[in-house]
């Protein structure tokens, strides 16, 4: 008995340089970074629950919010600069092997910096708000800690 032949998967569309099409769009990269930032806020809430002492919990949330603001801002500005330097030649990490020059590496790094920068900037208000919630929590509540 023979099995029916499976159809071959269609190859993704590529341009003449071998880069996947369609190219990355700025709006899509920013939206994905925002999605990652929302998920990072959920991780910060879970991480906060594992820190039992109130003062250490506040220190943890202050450190997360500060590093999110500073790191996210720096990476977003760096990514925007790289994106503008690349013009319309922004590539995915899967297209790394299509790079032929030394300066074309920025085309791969730009969307990564923008995504991580958006993650950090959206992590800041969530953890900063949690810091203030823990600061104003009534003793004995689950937010207050021990």
Give a written overview of the molecule.
This protein has 146 residues and is mostly helical. Helices cover 60% and strands 0% of the residues. The chain has 3 helices and no strands. It has helices at 26-49, 54-86, 106-135. It is elongated and about 65 Å long. The chain starts with 25 loop residues before the first helix and ends in an 11-residue tail after the last helix.
Report the average pLDDT across residues. 89
Q: Main sheet?
A: none
Label the overall shape. elongated
Number of helices: 3
Rg result: 22 Å
Determine the structural class based on helices, strands and strand pairing.
mainly alpha
Beta-strand percentage range: under 5%
- The proportion of residues forming helix, as a percent range, comes to 55-70%
Please give the number of β-strands: 0
N/C terminus separation: 69 Å
- Poorly predicted parts: none
Would you list the SSEs in sequence order as H and E?
HHH
Summed up, what is this model?
By secondary structure, the protein is mostly helical.
